[in-house]
Amino acid sequence: MPAFAKFFSTLKGSREIVRSRPNHDLTIQAYKFNEDDLNVLKVRFQLAAEDHVISNIPNEKIEEFPEKYFCPKVNRKMLIDEDFDIRKISNFSDSPIRTFFRKMQIVTRNPLGMPESRTDDLVADLLRVVKMNDDPLMIAQHLPRKLYILNEPYVSAEPEFVVTKGVISMVFVEDKTLENTNRLCAYGEMQIAAELLACENDNVREDSKITDQVLFGENDKKSGLDLAHPDGRRKVLTALAKIRQYLLK
C-alpha cells in the first residue's frame, strides 16, 4: 500500500510561535528549509494510509476514466528497447496517446543526467491526461508563492506544478526539483512542506480567513509507482482521476 505524508499546519498558531521567538533565523527560501524551521512553524509530517488520502470512489464510478492510457502491452523493458517503435502498437491510434508514451520512452531511456524539462513535459502530460487542466481546474507551473509571517512576505517558494481550483491548491513535486535531499532535510520533505505552506498561506490571505489547514504530500521512495509499468501506470492514473473527481464535487 502506498504511504502518504499527511501534513498539518496551524497558521494562526505558527504566527504566535514566531512572535514569541523573534531571535530564530527562519530560512527565507523553501529549498533551504530544515527541521528547525518546521518546528518553529508548528509543522509535522504524519504517515497516512492511501485510503485516508485518496477519495474512496469505486473505479467503475470514476467519470472520464483514462482507460486508453493504461495500455497493458507496454512495459519498462519495451520502452528501453532501442528497436521499440511506438507507432507499431495498435492501442496507440490517437496522436495524444502516442505523444504521451513517446515522452515516457525518452524519460525511461535516459534517467541519469536528463534535463529537468524532459521530466516536466511528461508530468505536465500526465496531469492533462486526467483533466487537471480542464476548467474549473487549472495547472500552473513554477508559480511564485510567499509565506507571510506577521503580515510580511517572509519565505519564497516556487512549486514545480500547482493545480488550482479557486482557493484550493494541490502541489505536485518531481524529485529532480528537490535541491536538498540529504538526511537532515528528510530527503526533500522540508522543501515540500515549505512549498505547501506558501501555497496555502497565499490562498488563506486571498480568502481573508485564518483557519486550520490540512494538506497532503507524497514522498516515500519505497512505495513509489513506476509509470513505465502497466500496473504502476494504472494505479497512478486511477489515484489522480479520483482526486480530480473529489475536487470537482
UniProtKB/TrEMBL annotation:
Domain of life from the UniProt record: Eukaryota
The protein's name: 11289_t:CDS:1
